[in-house]
Each structure stands twice: as C-alpha cells, then as structure tokens.
Design goal:
Elements: H1 10-19, E1 25-31, H2 40-43, E2 56-57, H3 58-61, H4 64-72, E3 79-80, H5 83-92, E4 96-103, E5 117-123
Antiparallel strand pairs: 1-5, 2-3, 4-5
C-alpha cells in the first residue's frame, strides 16, 4: 500500500484489515511526512525552506500554477499524512506491526539529516 498517493487514510487500512485473512500481511510504504513541510521546488535546488503544514495535500497546499507544472511533468498528486495517522492507523485498524524500515532519497537535501522513506510490515492476527 503506497500511502502518499491516497487522500484518505483510515478507511484504506480498515478495508485492508477486513479483506486480509488471519495471518495476512500488510506491507505499507510512505514518505516521511517531514519531507512535505518543505517547498518542493526549492528542495529540487538543494534548499530546505519550511513552507507547508501537515497533513499535506497537493490539492490544497499548492497554487494552481504549481499544480499545473506538476501535471505537465506527469507527476501524481501527493498527500503527506502525519506519522500518527500512518503508524497509529495501522494499529487502530487491528494490525500488529512486525517490521519497520527507513531509507534515504539520496536526491533530496533532507536525506543529509534524516531518513525520507518509511516502510512497515504489519500482520492481521
């Protein structure tokens, strides 16, 4: 489940829990929400400038001109959910988290300071 491309969080996890059989595994990957507070265009030039709050949504956080530039490049809309929603949402749905992994987007300046990707493995008991 790639969560940065979805607007609603809890309903997706509840549905995943409902359809998985007992012992089923949910693998979820998402961008560290800290990445979304920075101006994306400035970050592409190596500059970290805080601009947005969480939760983040391209649909409401970007200007029409910025949304159009991303659409022209063929980029999807992104949504940055808080860690409480990402991790707590899996637990609230009934999953038991059995794995946690972080990695770095080497092309983003934030990666010099912290992991930018997160993946979890959760089990339906």
């Amino acid at each position: 489940m790639l969560q940065c491309l979805c607007a609603a969080g809890s309903s997706r996890r509840a549905e995943a829990f409902r359809v998985l059989r007992h012992g089923g595994v949910l693998l979820a990957g998402f961008i560290n929400p800290a990445l979304y507070i920075f101006d994306r265009e400035r970050a592409e030039h190596g500059e970290l400038q805080a601009r947005h709050t969480l939760p983040f949504a391209d649909t409401t956080s970007l200007s029409e001109a910025e949304k159009q530039r991303h659409a022209d490049k063929g980029e999807p809309l992104e949504f940055g959910h808080a860690l409480g929603d990402q991790l707590g949402g899996q637990l609230d749905a009934g999953f038991v988290m059995t794995g946690f992994y972080e990695d770095y987007h080497r092309g983003h300046p934030l990666a010099a300071y912290m992991p930018t990707y997160i993946a979890t493995r959760s089990l339906k008991p």
